[in-house]
Design brief:
Blueprint (H helix, E strand, L loop, with lengths): L20 E6 L2 H4 L18 E7 L5 E2 L2 E2 L19 H5 L8 E7 L4 H6 L3 H14 L3 E5 L13 H17 L5 E7 L6 H7 L8 E6 L5 H9 L4 E6 L3 E3 L2 E3 L1 E2 L3 H21 L4 E7 L18 E2 L6 H11 L4 E2 L8
Parallel strand pairs: 1-2, 1-13, 1-15, 2-5, 5-6, 6-7, 7-8, 8-9, 9-13, 12-14
Antiparallel strand pairs: 3-4, 10-11
Length: 335
């Protein structure tokens, strides 16, 4: 049971109480830090967050920047598909993260049909057992950014069937420490599109979206109508004007104040203005520009969002995170 839910039993799964917001940090081991061999990341400069963001997949046989997936990559062992090292199990085994939850982005790109028809049941069952053994709250973002047409290419019919199959297997295996999160790319999808891709109230615990350059009020309104809490599951400062993207390099102190004013302030204002439904945020504290996956990506190729690189942003961030509404890792986070 997540801290505080005994006072408000009508909350969604793992939803913090009124006025509180979970804080997650990701998305690769160097970005997060706090582990042996990874000592220059977020957790080496700031309090351990209430959660860590990691990724895995149900797409065996696919490849990414020289890495070939076998399925559930990055779950029990270190894997790198072009976006830095990732290893969910590493956090479970480290005392620094003993009281932190996990947010897992579960990709099934190119394999949603196989997930839907049962071909990958063995992988789903293995994931279910791993989550159950973790003995902590896990947020599972199934087929995250389902509406990222340009990079995920999901088939709607197979996607929805795959979601139902995963949900059914988890129920059958009595996996109770998982919240199923439905995440859009943020901005651009109409209510009609969101309704068409929505697995259903009975299958979804949280709604979510990615926040890079906009508040995406469409998803916020959708979630409110469906009485679901919202997880801003991926957030990183991106400055843009139409299709033109600008450098956001937090190592550059001359840019720091401008970046804070143009991105961080609107971001935290969005969290504050929608505090009745935005109950979790996931910040990506990464040097995007240095990673093969993003070096030629028009959105992220000029982005270094590592807060600790800027004394100015660090001071501002610590002041914001000191507010009582932001939940950190603690002995009382869950029981």
């Amino acid at each position: 049971m997540l801290y505080g839910q005994q006072e408000q039993p009508n909350l969604a799964k793992f939803e913090p109480t009124k006025g509180k917001c979970l804080v997650f940090v990701g998305q690769d081991m160097e970005a997060i830090g706090g582990l042996e061999g990874y000592s220059t990341g977020y957790c080496d400069f700031f309090e351990a967050p209430s959660g860590i963001t990691v990724y895995t997949n149900l797409s065996p046989g696919t490849h990414s920047f020289g890495y070939f997936n076998t399925g559930l990559d990055g779950l029990t062992e270190v894997a790198n598909w072009g976006a830095g090292n990732s290893c969910a199990q590493c956090y479970l085994q480290d005392q620094t993260f003993a009281k932190s939850m996990l947010s897992i982005g579960l990709s099934m790109v190119g394999h949603e049909k196989k997930v839907a028809n049962g071909t990958h049941d063995t992988l789903i069952i293995a994931l279910a057992h791993w989550i159950k053994a973790a003995k902590r709250p896990i947020f599972l973002r199934i087929g995250y950014e389902f509406d990222g047409w340009d990079w995920n290419h999901y088939n709607r019919r197979h996607y929805l069937k795959a979601w139902k199959r995963i949900h059914r297997i988890f129920i059958q295996l009595q996996v109770t420490n998982v919240a199923l999160v439905w995440q859009s790319k943020g901005n651009g999808s109409s209510t009609k599109v969101l309704e068409a891709w929505y697995p259903g109230d009975e299958l979804v615990d949280w709604c979510a979206y990615s926040y890079f350059g906009n508040p995406d009020t469409q998803m916020l309104q959708f979630a409110r109508a469906h009485r679901k809490p919202v997880f801003i599951a991926e957030a990183s400062p991106v400055l843009q004007d139409g299709n033109l993207y600008f450098e956001t390099d937090l190592k550059n102190e001359t840019q720091a104040q401008s970046i804070w004013e143009q991105w961080y302030i609107p971001f935290f204002e969005t969290v504050s203005n929608y505090q009745d439904i935005i109950k979790a945020i996931g910040y990506i504290n990464a040097d995007w520009a240095s990673q093969p996956m993003w070096k030629n990506n028009p959105v992220f190729k000029k982005v270094d969002s590592r807060i600790q690189q800027s004394p100015y942003i660090t001071k501002k961030w610590k002041k914001e995170m000191a507010k009582s509404k932001y939940v950190k890792a603690s002995e009382s986070l869950w029981e």
